[in-house]
Amino acid sequence: MARTAPRHLTDDELATVDRYWRAANYLAVGQIYLTGNPLLTEPLRPEHVKPRLLGHWGTSPGLNLVYAHLNRVIRARDLDAIHITGPGHGGPATLACCWLDGSYSDVHPDIPRDGEGMRRLFRQFSFPGGVPSHVAPQTPGSIHEGGELGYSLSHAYGAAFDNPGLLVAAIVGDGEAETGPLATGWHGNKFLDPVHDGAVLPVLHLNGYKIANPAVLARLDDGELDHLLRGYGHEPRYVGGDDPAAVHDALAAALDDCLDRIAQIQRAARGGDSSGRPRWPMIVLRTPKGWTGPAEVDGKPVENTWRAHQVPLSRVRDNPEHLAQLEAWLRSYRPEELFDERGRPVAGLLGQVPHGDRRLGSNPHANGGRLLRALPVPDVRRYAVEVPEPGGTLHEPTKILGEVLRDVMDATADRRDFRLFGPDETASNRLSAVFRASGKNWQEHRLATDEDLSRDGRVVEMLSEHNCQGWLEGYLLTGRHGLFASYEAFIHIVTSMANQHAKWLQVSRELPWRMPVSSLNYLLTSHVWRQDHNGFSHQDPGFIDHIVNKDPATIRVYLPPDTNCLLAVAAETLDTRDLINVVAAGKQPTFDWLGIEDAVNHVERGVSVWDWAGTDTGREPQVVLAAAGDVPTMEIMAAASLLRAHLPDLAVRVVNVVDLMRLMPRESHPRGLSDASFDALFTTSAPVIFAYHGYPWLIHRLTYSRHNHGNLHVRGYKERGTTTTPFDMVVLNDMDRYRLVMDVIDRTPSLASRAIAVRQAMEEKRNKHRAYVREHGEDMPEVRDWSWANPLG
């Protein structure tokens, strides 16, 4: 191709990179439109075109451009690199490039790199039984789901953490750049340690438009945009234009300059220079939206407008003019120069493509299970609290868990493949023991009053749940382990991210070449029942309701009732694969119910009868008291002690649920109980009074098909909250011990008349509490000082 003033690439290098780019663009268009005639060996006819045209062309030329140039520098410099595609539905581009470099056919051998494989590649795209229009698990080399915008940078930085030899190129779409998560994602460079971490090279792709509107950053004048990006801590390099030769040359020069700067930063830091946080380079790439596509359709401009976003020619099958335009568009790439008679890429086209695992589609970091090592989780029995008798002592569960996490941090200090993420709450959530093994990552300057900050810290805190989640996902998907600890109410902020990760795991499980990765572990603490000091805004247990909607094979939910059970849950979850484990556990002093061996057995079963707490030994229970969660367990146990005192002849069974998914039928969840096991625990006819950590209707949903569901009565959080005492919270939501005893009386037929005095006494206790707490500002002594070991206080 002609050019006047070559500055960086040789003519051969320019010709090779342009040939690859044209081929990738041709393949991207073919995927959107064609089911047959992939090499245009005959005139294009309507039957060669898909009946439903789905896909996104507008961003594809820019993505193909970056991929082609990454190939060049990876091969020239022998780089270990992956790339992340942030502009949403850029699937046609990445699929095209993976097919060209052979990595797609490696994992999808039914789609070979020849004419027939090209036809299948085209046909499967956005087609029933095929692949989606965005980058997805089926796309080799990907760790980033393109269906939702905003997380390219957080995934990129997560992948770079503790990967000192890795380069992560993150293409940021200009529409994506308007999202809140992406706006905070730029701050990942403040947590990147140039000694122990790899590098992230952001490429902000400004093609001007979103679906139907201009993009904000694309319309900023150059000075304002430059100030913004430098304010984020970057040194931007600018590339732009619509002349392919000039853009190729400028992008090649910018890439080489950025990579030289990255190498310089890393050499200096790894040589002992600790002069401060570096300013990392980035690229701003301005190219026309839908570049090389139709300039005009039906008299309206398309290229370099929002009309190029999806399918520029929408009526190809029934409009001969559109069909002719499509054929001219495809032939403009000169496919006869790109593919041989058998449809294989010509030799010169692949001259800059890396080999083997250096290919972007084959890098092991983008299939993290290939690199994953077992996490050295210590025997949690070493951390167990002594339980001389049930309910006689109290401990802070997350504080003891912090000691386990500290030792996991210690055990992975050399290999650096475990991190703890959270929004400025590690100490608040009583996990401070980890700071004895690793400080909090901090690359900025420090003051004498700062505590626990460290440039190489593996505890990562930022007051952005989006970043914490995105970093962890990037970390896990590249073969490492981690934990996300958060206040329960605010984990909702990342609900949609959890959606996408669950879907990623679900699809990955169906792909034999995708190796299992470490599970995404959530610790939800500072939970609904003990946010009495923060009040209503901090009281919401609904994340569990959402997460159980996901693929049953992917989801686990644990509600440990005490410290030793939390330790047993940690042992069960920390080194699992391809799961999302949600653990809700309190940080406040909680009664110890089970010794460690009983706790381990309880967690293994998921649901247990606590014989020592009930009064049904040797006889059929007249009522079942069940609990799931630490505060619900305490209230159920208090209700059981009241029943012992006031109705000693009543046969009461106490059941505790720690693994919530056990409540589901075995046919619906791999952890579910069989009907026979469920009936053995909860009976088929006795009333069941169930105190649950979250919204009560979830328990009904999980158990609606069980034989005894009609006798199940659930108490839980019902959106009544305020700044008040701990016990007043459960009273407000009708989950207190007195209300539970009243429920037993109301729902056990034999008690309707003979226990009326007991019921009245319970109602009086609730009234007394209401008056007492409003006068004294604390709970009644008989509540405050209650324990199972000393029920009278």
UniProtKB/TrEMBL annotation:
PANTHER family, sorted: PHOSPHOKETOLASE-RELATED
All residue ranges annotated as the Xylulose 5-phosphate/Fructose 6-phosphate phosphoketolase N-terminal domain in the record: 9-370
EC number(s) recorded for this UniProt protein: 4.1.2.-
Cofactor dependency: thiamine diphosphate
Source organism of the structure: Streptantibioticus silvisoli
InterPro entries given in the database record: Phosphoketolase, THDP-binding, Transketo_C/PFOR_II, Xul5P/Fru6P_PKetolase, Xul5P/Fru6P_PKetolase_C, Xul5P/Fru6P_PKetolase_CS, Xul5P/Fru6P_PKetolase_N, Xul5P/Fru6P_PKetolase_ThDP_BS
Protein family: Belongs to the XFP family.
Protein name: Probable phosphoketolase
Pfam families linked: XFP (PF03894), XFP_C (PF09363), XFP_N (PF09364)
Keyword match Lyase: yes
Protein keywords: Lyase, Thiamine pyrophosphate
Domain Xylulose 5-phosphate/Fructose 6-phosphate phosphoketolase C-terminal: 587-788
